[in-house]
Design brief:
Largest sheet: 8 strands, parallel
Strand order of the largest sheet: 1-3-5-6-7-8-11-14
Number of helices: 0
Strand content: 25-35%
Order of helices and strands: EEEEEEEEEEEEEEE
Structural class: mainly beta
Low-confidence stretches: none
Distance between the termini: 47 Å
Helix content: under 10%
Length: 171
């Protein structure tokens, strides 16, 4: 199979099973609720789907992950050692663990306020001290108890917008 790039966005797909070998996959703006993904992925866009859960334990080469506008309750990123870009609006999550993502460069966490005013993502404690390559940090409508970016000397952009429960911010 020589197929490396596949864009099936905006097709009202509900289920998909794809062959291995695909490196860049865009399934955004579908209605997918059940998915079997190829383990060869490097870039994955699942924005705007009906997934409540996603198993990311078998993607050792995944570098870019987009999971916005979905109803994910939890996400485990600990098996993604090459992750560089994470873009998500995970609904409720306690203590997202980024400690196993040493290559993380860009981190975007959002809550889309169109789903309700004064609603935020609750992410608990965020320790990004192991993410020494982190350059961009953007949180919009996110609640966290603490944020540790003590060792992130490469940070060049920080956006914290509508953050109303941060109790400890370390830099």
């Amino acid at each position: 199979n020589n197929l490396e790039y596949l864009n099936l966005s905006k097709n009202n797909l509900t289920h998909i099973d794809l062959p291995n070998g695909i490196k860049n996959l865009d399934l955004s703006n579908n209605k997918i609720s059940n998915i079997i993904l190829p383990t060869s992925l490097i870039k994955l866009n699942l924005n705007s789907n009906n997934l409540n859960d996603i198993d990311l334990s078998n993607f050792p080469n995944l570098e870019e992950l987009h999971l916005k506008y979905m109803n994910l309750d939890k996400i485990n990123l600990t098996k993604l050692p090459k992750l560089k870009i994470f873009d998500s609006n995970v609904n409720t999550q306690d203590d997202i663990d980024f400690s196993q993502n040493p290559d993380l460069q860009k981190l975007y966490l959002y809550y889309d306020a169109t789903y309700g005013e004064n609603v935020h993502i609750n992410v608990g404690n965020l320790d990004l001290s192991n993410n020494l390559k982190l350059e961009i940090l953007e949180f919009v409508n996110v609640n966290f108890k603490s944020l540790n970016i003590d060792k992130n000397v490469n940070l060049r952009e920080i956006t914290l917008s509508d953050i109303n429960t941060a109790t400890d911010f370390s830099k």
